[in-house]
Amino acid sequence: MIEVTDKAASELKILIEQEGKPELALRIFVAGVACSGIQYGLAFDDEVKEEDVTMESNGIKLVMAKDIEKSFSEGSVDFIEDENGKGFLIRNPTAGGCGTCGGGCH
Predict the structure, then answer these.
(1) Which of 10, 57, 61, 101 sits between 20 and 30 A of 90, alpha carbons compared?
(2) 14 exposure class (CB count in 10 Å sphere: 0-12, 13-18, 19+)
(3) Does 105 fall in a domain?
(4) Residues facing residue 37 across a β-bridge
(5) Domain region containing 38
(6) Residue 50 in domain
């Protein structure tokens, strides 16, 4: 199960309200692969495909392709705000990613 933290849910609900589309889901997708492993992205989506996996956390509907669920079945979506700015943070404890750029693990 992917958890949407209270702070992230609050921010997402504001954005969904601004869009005027209460049926929007938050789609999790693979944005790329880096030394640290798979990088995920987030986007609102109003189309849920039959082959998608859906779940709900903290009042937010989450959707992702089945192949993503295999590598991202647990984790969280958080919202952070600090001196560097603010934004959503995706945490996947099973993302792995070690040694693909020659640096190895530390």
Answers:
(1) 101
(2) exposed
(3) no
(4) 34
(5) 2-91
(6) yes
pLDDT of residue 1: 84
Residue numbers of the chain with a pLDDT score lower than 70: 36, 95-106
Which pairs count as long-range contacts for 61-69, CB under 8 Å and 24+ apart, including other chains? 61/24, 61/25, 61/26, 62/2, 62/4, 62/25, 62/26, 62/27, 62/28, 63/25, 63/26, 63/27, 63/28, 64/27, 64/28, 64/29, 65/29, 68/28, 68/29, 68/30, 68/40
In the chain, how many domains are there? 1
Judge whether 27 lies within some domain. yes
Task: Give the pLDDT score at 72.
Answer: 81
Q: Tell me whether residue 103 is in a domain.
A: no
pLDDT computed for residue 103 by the predictor: 46
Q: Which residues pair with 70 in a beta bridge?
A: none
Per DSSP, the three-state class of 66 is helix
